[in-house]
Amino acid sequence: MGAVLAAVLGAASLAGCSSTGGKRAEERAAAEAQERGRAAVSTPKWTFAMVTHSGDGDTFWDIVQKGSEEAAAKDNINFLYAHSDEGQQQAQLVQSYIDKDVDGLIVTLAKPDAMKAVVAKATKAGIPVITVNSGSEQSKQFGALTHIGQNETIAGEAVGDELDKRGKKKALCVLHEQGNVGHEQRCAGAKKAFDGTMQNLYVEGTNMPDVQASIEAKLQTDKSVDAVVTLGAPFADTAVKAKETAGSKAEIDTFDLNKSVAGSLKAGRLGFAVDQQPYLQGYEAVDLLWLYRYNADVLGGGLPVLTGPQIITEQDAAELEKYAERGTR
């Protein structure tokens, strides 16, 4: 009888744990499971595929992919990843995963016209789709469960407001991927909110020497430019080099955060960065697909799940640098 009572009291004690303690226990269990190479759940080994509009060597998408892979390990998911910065090729990659009858799809809609038909094919085939990073306006219309990312127009407006706070008067918005609707929305939002003058500068993002030369030429011919905004972390350092060779005093600011940007913020080479938390985008996309397969859950009632924007400055960089070093910010 005493043993039974002790067992009951023990169970009651466990049930009475605080929510914080329970959360920490879950986190420990998940970490231990990953260390052992086993999932933290007992659901079937579903296969999820992600297809993004990333070009080769883009560190932003390395962070997204890392988040996806770590969520997949926790959720017992076989995770597949492919990318192309060409809209039609991205659509073909999605079609290849439809043909493989994957259990869930995560896609970006940087070039929505190229993706609309293939996303419709996926949903018609009964494959749940989540959009991530770009395409919040088209996501629901195309039949996706939800969208995870930042609202690009709002993010752009945050940049315009920050430039005003810093007293800037004339800015360049450097677009490195023509046809990317999210990039256009960022620059348009910044231009709308900025009290000064903002001009778009289109560059060939796959050719860094060309990017540097284009920014340098603009800064040399127009000394009144006092801010340059790049739309991706890999382009920030290139803009800094262009500024130096042009002899310009313009402040360099950027969208997105990585190890290099965190270091440049800390050193004062960059003014600010706009972080949309790419690790969180990848992680939540996989996790929400798992929740949908497991329990028919849809977070936010299908409305976009926002991961940004967050303005990061020199004061924030030291705290975030350790996370950027490990590739999760």
Shape: elongated
Alpha-carbon distance between the termini?
54 Å
* Main sheet record: 6 strands, parallel
Estimate what percentage of residues fall within beta strands.
Answer: 15-25%
Q: What gyration radius follows from the Cα positions, in whole Å?
A: 22 Å
Q: What level of helicity do the residues show? A: 40-55%
Low-confidence parts, pLDDT < 50 over ≥5 residues? 1-22
Key phrases:
329 residues, alpha/beta, six-stranded parallel sheet, six-stranded mixed sheet, 13 helices, 51% helix, elongated, disordered N terminus
Tell me about this structure.
The protein is α/β, with parallel strands linked by helices and 329 residues long. The protein has 13 helices and twelve strands. Strands 2-1-3-4-5-11 form a six-stranded parallel beta sheet, sandwiched between helices. It has a six-stranded mixed beta sheet with strand order 7-6-8-9-10-12, sandwiched between helices. β4, α6 and β5 form a beta-alpha-beta unit. α7 packs parallel to α8 (181-193) and α11 (259-267) runs antiparallel to α13. The chain is elongated. The model is unreliable at 1-22 (pLDDT under 50).
Write a brief caption for the model:
With 329 residues, this protein is of the alpha/beta class. It is built from 13 helices and 12 strands.
